[in-house]
Design brief:
387 residues, mainly alpha, Multidrug-efflux Transporter Regulator, Chain: A, Domain 2, Citrate Synthase, domain 1, 2 domains
């Protein structure tokens, strides 16, 4: 079993060696290979401290064992990387878009700029306003309109698959614009975040929307990005890849997670933070919006967004209580929910932002997979009976 350690802290040499069950020489080898981050102890100038999150990751890998079946199974649940990519990565708790820290881009870039990075194209693409599928009525949700609109694009006989990068970038930009137009009643010109802010009547907070969309653009091989890549590997159109990504995003454990955050915050407002949190833990299990496998020291996307505006009181009380009782930091689901409340956005705006931003990443992964030209077809480990 993996020993329980505080992954948000630092460990002494003795603690790290004891947790890993290794000698000092082995610990030094891990450090030299970049497997464990080390820093000087600010309270003891002659002592070094070792990253507890890196130690925990090594312990997890060790306890999985090296058996082939265990390794294969672990890759599908936050385990070993299985696809080569130049699009994005998460290293030591930081998110990078093609080698550039996403924190740097979030401070200044538009979603169009992020697409230029992720798609590796010469110029920032333009996302057109396209509304030709399903009119906005009380009986249709933004997600339903998006499904219909993207389905039309995916099955358009004139939209043949191409491997020419310029044509792929143009088609991808058209699809992002189509998706955004399905979720938000866009009008006018300009960067997408400004058109969204005008539609949602929060022009004063447009820069916050810009920052959020850039953070949402990609996050390595998420389930929705994987769905888009698998679809692309079959030779399907970019529209089909967009549709696959959107379908995967719609699940409650992915893009639907903010809805659970909203439910938790509703209980906080009704019963108080301590009662609501403990009741949720007892009846539903882990709290939504807190703790992330890939960000053991805290989600940098959430930290950056929450530092950019004054979150509502219930959000601040919730994050403080959870950190005090479990040391868990908020994820971007908390930050997006707080942002929507701060800007007075529609109830379904969080999912809309998530889908619009992440569609840029889906297109990046689909385009990269098309260029790779291989079929993604993993094998299953059969555990049933044979008759």
């Amino acid at each position: 079993m993996i020993e329980t350690i505080n992954v948000q802290s630092w460990m002494t040499q003795e603690e790290a060696c004891r947790a890993l069950g290794v000698r000092k020489q082995t610990l030094y080898a891990y450090v030299s290979r970049g497997r464990i981050e080390v820093r000087w102890d600010p309270e003891h100038v002659s002592r070094k401290l070792y990253s507890a999150s890196d130690v925990a990751a090594l312990m997890k890998k060790r306890d999985l064992g090296r058996a082939h079946k265990n390794i294969a199974a672990s890759t599908m649940a936050w385990g070993e990387p299985i696809i080569n990519t130049r699009i994005s990565t998460i290293e030591r708790g930081r998110l990078y878009y093609r080698g550039t820290d996403a924190l740097e881009l979030a401070a200044r870039a538009t979603l169009e700029d992020a697409a230029q990075y992720l798609w590796d194209c010469e110029h920032s693409p333009l996302f057109p306003t396209l509304r030709d599928a399903l009119p906005a009525t009380p009986d249709t949700t933004p997600l339903a309109r998006a499904y219909v609109s993207i389905s039309l694009a995916a099955t358009n006989p004139g939209s043949n698959l191409t491997t020419d990068p310029r044509r792929l970038h143009d088609e991808a930009a058209s699809l992002v614009g189509r998706l955004a137009s399905s979720f938000v009643a866009l009008n006018g010109d300009g960067p997408l975040h400004l058109r969204i802010a005008r539609a949602w009547r929060c022009e004063a907070q447009a820069d916050l929307l810009r920052r959020a969309l850039v953070w949402l653009a990609d996050q390595e091989l998420t389930t929705s990005a994987f769905a888009a890549r698998v679809t692309a590997s079959t030779g399907a159109s970019l529209g089909a890849c967009m549709l696959a990504g959107l379908a995967a995003l719609s699940g409650p454990l992915h893009g639907g997670a903010p809805a659970r955050v909203q439910a938790l915050l509703g209980e906080v407002r009704e019963h108080g933070v301590a009662t609501a949190v403990e009741h949720w833990r007892a009846t539903h299990g882990p709290l939504p919006g807190f703790g992330h496998e890939l960000y053991p020291q805290g989600d940098p996307r959430a930290a950056d967004l929450l530092a950019a505006f004054d979150a509502p009181d219930d959000v601040r009380e919730l994050t403080a209580y959870v950190h005090r009782t479990s040391s868990l930091a908020p994820t971007i689901d908390i930050a997006l929910t707080a942002l929507a409340r701060y800007c007075g956005l529609p109830d379904d705006s969080v999912f809309s932002m998530f889908a619009i931003g992440r569609s840029v990443g889906w297109m990046a992964h689909a385009i990269e997979q098309i260029a790779d030209g291989t079929l993604l077809r993993p094998r299953a480990h059969y555990v049933g009976l044979l008759k």
